[in-house]
Amino acid sequence: MRDILDRQRSAFMAELPVSLATRRDRLRRAIEMIADNSGRFCAALTDDFGHRSHEQSMLTDIAASVAPLHHALKHLDRWAKPEKKPVLFPLGLLGGRGWIEYQPKGVIGVIAPWNFPVNLVMSPLAGVLAAGNRAMIKTSEYTPRVAALFEELGARYFDSEEIAFITGGPEVGKAFAELPFDHLLFTGATGIARHILHAAADNLVPVTLELGGKSPVIVGRSADMRQATERVVIGKMMNAGQICLAPDYLLVAADQEGAAIEGLKAAASTLYPSLIANPDYTAIINDRHHQRLTDWIDDARAKGAEVIVVNPADEDFAGSNGRKMPLHIIRNTTNAMTVMQEEIFGPILPVRRYDTIDDAIAEVNRRDRPLALYHFGSDAAERRHVLDRTITGGVTLDDVVFHVSQEELPFGGIGPSGMGAYHGEVGFRTFSHAKSVYKQPRIDVARLAGLKPPYGAATRKSIARQMKG
């Protein structure tokens, strides 16, 4: 891996400046790699998951990879333009000029997760390639068929000095994180991110972390309950809840809890009238995660929660020899239960009651700052209050997850849910170095500013002028 990094960095330095034509060519090849092989990627995804909806894979991994690459192609000229900046008075009047040039950083490391193993490789590459960088990508060992396909196709569409795909388990991942990249993007669990930060710190590598956390849904009293619960179910059951932005728990007014639960059950039963043979419903990624979710459900039940299993076709999941799991709605949860302590990452939805909207806000603020927050309701004052009183990576109002697909909105977390952001122009900036350039006018500015010894009246005037602001 170090040899690949060294070769990529040497090729990068030899190429400078990286032309916009070269960047466009790499973006187009990235589009072709995914679009021309979409069927193979979807087949690999369903093999890795045990079953994954073909249409969902096309939506969330194929189209959602191609769209940001197209977006970068469309806006590259504007993003790459130097930005003029004002200079101190009176230097601007005297001919001084200042601007920012956006240069590529060099070699970017990307550590991708398993839940969207195509999209969370390609979406960052839109900004990486638009900014003029090379990339090394560590794919997830949990999706080995997708990883092998990337390794095969990457070598066909790109020289290894442009983009290289690295496969392997935790030891490879650890060594990858320790490489002296010019920037490192990690998408994954908060616990692993702590190790990534430690590894990157030894080489002072700047890091962007896209993590997760317990993203809450606040259903206001003014919400359309049928619409709100249907949209929550869509977000919760897509990819079987294995989404960093999935609604993790739902907060509803105490006197509306029954209506909310009935709405969730009705929506899940309508959208997925059966599950085991349903091609639209995805399986849990592996046995370990399936057992983890099962254990957490058992833990909640043992500690007094009511567990509602939404199984409209009354199917036998235990005897199905598969890893599909129905939606589990959990009532009467306490903070002692694992489902209220850890990010769930599966089709389990705790429902919590609140008396006032401030109680709901306090519930959110007692926990680590989440990657996302969702609010439903037509009360504009309440919505503003929720936005003002919570700190979260991003927000979708009157739906869930959708802010991630808005390419010109920065995507990222805050605190334990992440640091930094990418997507669209923000991604271009993340993977670029903003180099400040100042051009001095011909006149003797040092003399005018009183910078030349011996210091005297001109110096004192310059100090007084600056102190006034």
TrEMBL record:
Family: Belongs to the aldehyde dehydrogenase family.
The protein's name in its UniProt record: Aldehyde dehydrogenase
SUPFAM superfamilies in the record: ALDH-like
Organism from which the protein derives: Sphingomonas japonica
Gene3D superfamilies from the UniProt entry: Aldehyde Dehydrogenase, Chain A, domain 1 (3.40.605.10), Aldehyde Dehydrogenase, Chain A, domain 2 (3.40.309.10)
Active site: 210
A Pfam entry, by short name: Aldedh
Domain (Aldehyde dehydrogenase): residue spans on this chain: 17-437
Lineage top rank: taxon: Bacteria
Record keywords: NAD, Oxidoreductase
A GO term, aspect molecular function: coniferyl-aldehyde dehydrogenase [NAD(P)+] activity
